[in-house]
Structure formats: C-alpha cells, structure tokens
Amino acid sequence: MNRLVAYIVRFAIILFGYAVASLAASAFLNILFLASHGYTPDHTHPTATASLYFSIPFVALFVAYFAFMPAVIVILVAEILGRRDWLFYALSGAVVAAVFLGLVDQAGDTTFAVTGTNPIMAVIGGGMVGGIFYWLSAGRWAGSWWLGDEARP
User: What is the pTM of this model?
Assistant: First the structure.
C-alpha cells in the first residue's frame, strides 16, 4: 500500500512538472514573439502585459497537446533510468520539439507548419526551456520511486 501511494504521488509530481514545462515553453514563445515585433520592457503597453495573462496559458494548452506523446516517452525513459541532470532534460526538450516539428511537416498540415529558420529555432528553444523547467519542478527526483531511498538527491 505504501508503494502504491509513492507511485500516485510521483505521478502527480510528473503531471505538475509537465504543466510547469508547458507554461514555461509558452511564456518563452510569447516573449520571443513580442520581442520579434519590437516590444521591450520599456515600451510595453498595459494591454500587451494583460494579453500575456491570457495568451501564455492558452498557448500552453497547445504546447501540452502537441508535445504530449514524445514527452511521455522521454519522461518514461528518464524515470526508468533515474536521470536527474538538467542537461538531459534540456536536450530532451529540444528532441521533443524537433519530433513535433517533424510530425507537423509529415502531416502536411499547413495550419501548424513551421517553415522559417527563426521559428524553428524558437520552437526548439521553447522545448529546451520546457525541459529545464520540467527538471526544476519534477525531474530532479526522477526514479526516486524506482531506485528507492538511497538514490534521493
């Protein structure tokens, strides 16, 4: 019974980490979008700031939706192997973003097609930011349910 509670708690932490990663990647993409249009912290209008309160969680829903399957595979591998280093999660986030870009390209859906070099690099950077924030919120304890108490950070 104690082991079952540990699994449920770890699953909840993983879900929380995935939500944090999606929000962080969304915030990164939103800030890059605003910066590419010339907005700086000195020039922000109150409506631009207020729109971020809506657009970051809204875009995070799309990020979470499109990155779900590749991220599940990465999280499962990290949990089984007990990977706890930030670089693994940053590079895994880049791989998840690249897989998303590849799937969108193979689907031939022009609505979500990302074709320019700068947007591709922004999506991959967003994946890296999401991976780092996943590590901050959940990845530092990866495999603790699997490896036991002797492997705690």
Answer: 0.85
